[in-house]
Hints:
Elements: H1 14-24, H2 30-35, H3 39-51, H4 58-71, H5 75-85, H6 92-100, H7 108-122, H8 129-138, H9 141-161
Amino acid sequence: MARVSYVEPDQATPEVKEIYQNIFRGRPGNAQKVLAHRPEMLKNFLGFYGSVGKSLDRKLYEAIYIRVSAINQCRYCLQHHVAASKRVGLTAEDWRALKSGGYGRFSEKEQAALSYAEKLTRSPHEVTDADFATLKTYFTEPEIVDLHLLTGLVNLTNRFTDPLGLDLEIPVQEI
């Protein structure tokens, strides 16, 4: 159960109602309903969230979201991105591999990104020039910035959703 209230569409300010309608077709998720307590923050966060990871392949984006959420044991984000990952071709076997940290079923490029995202999540102070040299084998510098920010964004959302006790709006998918 959520530790703070949700701003439901019928309770929202006109500005938030417009965001709910225009961006979420009148069906915001619980994360957005909590952010709606701070309308300016909701608006700015949605813009930032929508811009991060755009230079990366969508399958890789979802794989990173799943892996980092699994490391952080964030049920809310993990479930939402397992659901989203189906649309880009990730399978139940992929989910299990990502949950356990097994990257062997992924390409070398994907493995490099997933390994970096894991290191950045677990021990950011241990990221080295060698890590960047590996990334530069597969990614441009703008893509590396995107990968880095995506990992940070996942960590941020993981620390926002589950600690606030947000309820899932979707059926649980067992991994």
